[in-house]
Design brief:
Blueprint (H helix, E strand, L loop, with lengths): L7 H14 L4 H15 L5 H12 L5 H44 L6 H26 L3 H15 L4 H19 L2 H7 L12 H16 L4 H13 L6 H13 L7 H33 L2 H7 L1 H29 L3 H16 L5 H17 L1
Helix pairs in contact: 1-4, 2-4, 2-5, 3-4, 3-5, 3-14, 4-12, 5-14, 5-15, 5-16, 6-7, 6-14, 7-14, 9-12, 10-11, 11-12, 13-14, 15-16
Length: 373
């Protein structure tokens, strides 16, 4: 593994490219990061990458964005944290901002369905290719395997993902404690010290609404939209049609799904509303990761926290598989999507050095061609 620091230029280049090409939601984004950071550049091993995923799942906010921030902090400290996070977010925000501007002018979204039709099956292959090595690393013993299966069943049955992860973590922690003597447990307790290191009334209101969302919201983009429905639509600040269109924008644009708030902020108060909403919803992620990142290695060194983290990690794999299964049900609809999915699986597992960007571009083009048949 590479221990030397990474230049800000290299971080900026990687996460700008990911911000422009990472389609398909957090699971797909993390899969692309894993391929770039672990397999291609060897900046960290699978275990540490898995630990970061587990830690990220325990805090509110957009998971893939927080993973980008974690990686930036690992490779270039505080400056890397800011550069990686901003470079991953900004492309999606700019694309969404342009769509929001056109939407406000013309009242409808551009026709992108034929291209997204082909991208979605390929995303399934990308997620599976990433989760396979992570699962091998997380599956350390039979107990973790059993916990992983139970976590997958619980997740598929609709149980809250945070409850699943904390539950798995505490079960493994309980099993570990039950086998240790009291004297040994005293030595296991870690000492964790951390040094943490235009304003209109309408924009201030927008800022506080989205700051609250970014600070307390767990879960996927769909949870975000449910929260926005109760916070904005029911209070008359946004129409349900605008919210539905915001969901569509989040689905067919690359980068974090939370960039949909740029679209929503624009509809609420124009460009300034978009800026305030975007800054507010992503700001807590930078703060949370800055506080959490230095703790992750200390958690792994502590036997108690390491046991807990093992449980969280195996549950994280189960949740990623749940996302993949749910996504497959929605995506694999006919012989065309089956064909694209099979070809994508063959490419991702058989030719692992091929950049996922080419896979996405190729699957988009193939989907467009197949729909013409």
């Amino acid at each position: 593994m590479q221990n030397e620091k990474t230049s800000l230029k290299e971080l900026a280049g990687l996460f700008t490219r990911l911000g422009l090409t990472a389609f398909g939601g957090p699971a797909a984004h993390i899969a692309m990061m894993q391929k770039e950071v672990v397999e291609k550049r060897m900046w960290m091993d699978h275990q540490h990458f898995m630990d970061l995923i587990g830690a990220t799942n325990l805090i509110p906010g957009p998971n893939s964005t927080e993973m980008a921030i974690h990686i930036g902090h690992e490779r270039a400290g505080w400056r890397g944290l800011v550069v990686a996070g901003c470079c991953f977010i900004i492309p999606a925000v700019l694309i969404t901002g342009c769509i929001a501007w056109l939407y406000r002018l013309y009242g409808q979204l551009p026709l992108v369905r034929p291209f997204i039709y082909g991208v979605k099956p390929a995303i399934i292959a990308i997620i599976l290719s990433a989760v396979f090595p992570l699962a091998k690393k997380a599956l350390k013993n039979i107990e973790l395997g059993i916990i992983g299966v139970l976590a997958l069943i619980a997740s598929l049955s609709g149980m809250n993902e945070i409850a699943v992860m904390f539950g798995a973590g505490f079960v493994i922690l309980f099993l570990y404690i039950s086998r240790r003597k009291a004297a040994d447990l005293k030595n296991d307790l870690p000492i964790l010290f951390l040094n943490i290191p235009l304003l209109s009334q309408e924009n201030v209101k927008i800022f506080w609404i989205f700051l609250k969302i970014g600070a307390i919201l767990y879960g996927s983009g769909y949870v975000l939209f449910a929260f926005l429905d109760s916070e904005l639509v029911t209070k008359g600040m946004l129409t349900r049609t605008q919210l539905v269109d915001a969901i569509a924008v989040g689905q067919f644009t690359p980068g974090p799904v939370f960039s949909s708030v740029t679209f929503i902020g624009w509809q609420m108060n124009g460009p300034s509303g978009a800026i305030f909403a975007t800054i507010a919803v992503f700001l807590p992620s930078f703060v949370f990761v800055a506080m959490l990142n230095p703790l992750v290695p200390k958690m792994r060194k502590s036997r108690l926290f390491s046991a807990f983290l093992d449980g969280v990690n195996i549950a994280s794999v189960a949740i990623i598989l749940t996302v993949c299964i749910s996504f497959s049900r929605e995506t694999i609809m006919d012989w065309r999507t089956i064909l694209i999915a099979v070809l994508s699986l063959i490419i991702t597992f058989g030719f692992r050095k091929i950049n996922t960007v080419f896979l996405i571009i190729g699957s988009a083009a193939l989907g467009y061609v197949l729909l013409l048949l």
